[in-house]
Amino acid sequence: MLTKGSKITAGIFAISIFLFGFSMLQNVAYYIDPASKLYLAGSSNVVDFTCNCTQGFPDNEVYFQEDAAKKKWIFKGAELKIQSRKLDCGNKGMNRDMYNTLKADKYPTITIELLETTQPHDKSFMEGNHWVGMDAKVAITIAGVRKIHNLAVESKKLSNTKFEFKSCQTLYMTDFGIEPPKPFMGMIKVKDEILIHMDLIIKKK
User: Fold this and answer.
1) CA 175, CA 168: separation in Å to the nearest integer?
2) pTM above 0.85, yes or no
3) Which of 5, 75, 93, 145 might form a disulfide with 176, Cβ 3.0–4.6 angstroms?
4) Nearest CA to 31 among 193, 161, 190, 132?
5) DSSP state, 81?
6) What structural domains and CATH numbers belong to the chain?
7) What H or E segment, with its residue span, contains residue 17?
8) How big is the CA angle at 145 (ends 140 and 149), to the nearest 5 degrees?
9) pLDDT at 68
10) 136-154 burial by CB neighbour count: b if 16+ within 10 A, else e?
11) Residue 7 has pLDDT above 50, yes or no
């Protein structure tokens, strides 16, 4: 039985949730389907290149709150840790240059942390098997430098427990304090821009 004081506290808590529009903190256990694709793409004055992520990802658990009024979800613990040395650029020389550029010995992982998403449209990807756009705020850490980026994401419900998310974002290596590689004594000059492509298939456990 609630005492008078506990009733007042519970009432204030309920009013606070109502006023701010946030749901209670929820959690979902999930894993990333091996059919997912993640790669970096860049170019130089000689050739374009693609570095595919070849690693598998462990099962994880994400915590989130929903702000229904603003169609916003706030996340905690939604991190994707990419091992730098699991990026395969197609040959040993390019791999070596990429690992050196990413300072893989000192910073062995690239981290993509999902902070929040916003559904700007009336339709939700949870309502059916159609592609729906959403905005995502993420923190990307490369070579120990953390930057906030806003991503345009295409999302689709594949089943009640399976979802697909696609996004592509341009990054600049110099923003993360790293210099584009210049192999063959500078004869090959890699451009500063690099694209990160994500096509992630997420399954709820």
Assistant:
1) 17
2) no
3) 145
4) 161
5) E
6) 22-204 (2.40.128.110)
7) helix 4-20
8) 30
9) 73
10) bbbebbbbeeeeebebebe
11) no
